[in-house]
Amino acid sequence: MIGRVSSLLSYIYNKVLQMVNFSSSTRSGLAFRFAVILILLVTLVTPWLAALFVFRLYSSSTSPLLFDPFVLPGLPRRTLDARSSVITAAACVESASKLKKGSRAGELVVATECSCRSVRENELERVIQQLETKERSQAFERIYSTDYWGGGESRSGPGSNVLYTANARKMLAEAFQKFGVHLVLDVPCGDVNWQPLIEGFNSTKYVGYDIVPQLVARNIEHFREFKNMEFARHDFVNMPIDITPDLIICRDAIQHNTLKDGVRALANLEKSGAKYLVTNWHANTGRGMHIPANKHNFHVSVGGTYPIDVSCPPFNFSNPELFISEGPNGENDDGKFIGVWKLPAMLKGNGERFIIPDDLKVRAKQKVVFWDEVLKAQDLASI
Ligand SMILES: *[C@@H]1O[C@H](CO)[C@@H](O)[C@H](O)[C@H]1NC(C)=O
Ligand SMILES: *[C@@H]1O[C@H](CO)[C@@H](O)[C@H](O)[C@H]1NC(C)=O
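A: This is the predicted complex of the input protein with 2-acetamido-2-deoxy-beta-D-glucopyranose.
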């Protein structure tokens, strides 16, 4: 290519000199030769620079001041690289498709850079995710193998004992019926101490995910007889959910992770396309958890515990469809409730705490309360 261009140039150069028939030894002859070379160079370089400028102008939504004439197509482009950390693969594809109207060379350069960048970004992201999953897995393996939460009956903690879960099971049986649940995903499922006691459980397909490998192996063995049950190792923060359950149970789980991982996990659950989510919230009365009353949603390291209130930032859940108070006879010291939400729920609320009138709080100790009843009570109170 370069060879051809240079022979073309020397051909033009010689032709021009022949046409004017100059003597090469004179001073003006030398000046003329120099001028011809200069003109040739300028005509060669200018279109490239102009094309680059136009390309830069239209290839990014950022300021054209980022234009860098010293960087040629095909070579690493410093300005674009510096911004690459904020250019997502999606934005990249978008700008590449905008360029369809631009030059073919520009299209190719951007397409190549885009795909290189997203492949590389994905690779790095995968490495980070694997490390995170390992870290989380080790924390929960330790909790499981040492019975750290002291459940006694259940390694998943006292909140998973049969007596404690009576109301949770009552609510789930009602939700299974009301919402026609055929496939339920329980993530993380723990040692599944109480779930098979839900009324109607055997006629519902149950998938249990947990990050602790020993727990998954144990569950597969332990529930061999149950034809409706299936288990897999899974990290709800980082691994996509490749089934579409009617309802997801995510109970007593989010509050043992960092807030950031909790948000990521909930976003992941929503992405599965499930219609309903069952989870819990703690109004935190200050009695149960040895944490000052009303303090909630604060940072803990993985495996720690904070009182979670999904109504508040960063979760900002919408109102639940229905709920019940947890604990034996609905009594607990944490102000703990379990509810069913229609998905998506996160960021659908206004960030204010759920207000439940006292009489409905009392009712919720025995029976499922529908949010419509809360609304009705609020309407009456406002008259
Ligand atoms: C559900 O199935 C299991 C295993 O087959 C059985 O042990 C259990 O009694 C069944 N439960 C109900 C309520 O039928
Ligand atoms: C969540 O609620 C808080 C408090 O009302 C509000 O400041 C914040 O903007 C909300 N966040 C989102 C993402 O909706």
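The first strand starts at residue 183 and ends at 186. The pocket of 2-acetamido-2-deoxy-beta-D-glucopyranose (ligand 2) is lined by residues 313, 316, 347, 350-352 (CB under 6 Å).
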